[in-house]
Amino acid sequence: MSKDKPKKKDKAAKRSDGPTPADAEIVLKLYELRREPVMRASRETLLRWFPESYEELAALADFGSEQNAAFRQVTSYFEMAFGLARRGAVHPELLMDWCGEGVFLYAKLEPFLAEFRERVSPTAFANTQWVIENTEAGRSKLELHRSRLAKRD
Fold it and tell me: How far apart are CA 62 and CA 33, in angstroms?
C-alpha cells in the first residue's frame, strides 16, 4: 500500500452489514454517470495517459492545461464515488466490484502521490486510498494494476 497517507487520521465508518438493494441502486446510478458522453471522453483521455514523472502529473493537474478538465472530471467522479463508500452511504466491497478503473488511475498516480499532496493538495485521492486499503477487492485490484503497470516499463 502507498506510504503516502493523508495528514489527518481517518475515522471513517466501516460497514459490517452486507450490500442492500439501495447500495445496488447507487452503484447503478454511478454507472449511468460514467456513460455520459463528456465523461466517457474524459475517461478515455486518462486511460491512455501514463505519467512517468511528477511533472507530467502536475502538468495535467494545471488549470491551464488542455486536458485538465478531463483530469478534474474523472478524478472528482471517483473521489465522489469512493467517498460515498468511505462515509457508509454505499457498501464499499460492492462498489469496488465495479470500480477497477478508479483503482487503475490511482495506481498510475501512486508513485507521485506524496509529492502531489505536498505541493497541491494534502487530501488528494484520500477517498480512493481509503476504499483501496479497506476492501479486499480494492487491495487485490491495486496489486493487479501495479503488476500490469510494471510490465509496461
Answer: 25
Where are the chain's structural domains?
A: 21-152
Residue range 107-123: mean pLDDT, rounded:
97
Q: What does the alpha-carbon distance between residue 76 and residue 93 come to, in Å, rounded to a whole number?
A: 20
User: d(Cα 63, Cα 126) in Å, to the nearest integer?
Assistant: 21
Using alpha carbons, select from 69, 101, 91 the residue that is nearest to residue 21. Answer: 91
CB 28 within 8 A of CB 39: no
DSSP reduced 3-state for 63: coil
Size of the chain, expressed as the number of residues it contains: 153
Kindly tell me the sign of the dihedral angle through the C-alpha atoms of 96, 102, 105, 111: negative
Q: What is the mean pLDDT of residues 83-97?
A: 94
Which of 37-46, 62-71, 108-117, 135-144 has the lowest average pLDDT? 62-71
The Cα 32–Cα 19 span in angstroms is 19
Please report, to the nearest 10 degrees, the dihedral formed by the alpha carbons of residues 86, 91, 96, 97 taken in order: 180
**Where do we find the cell 462498489?**
95
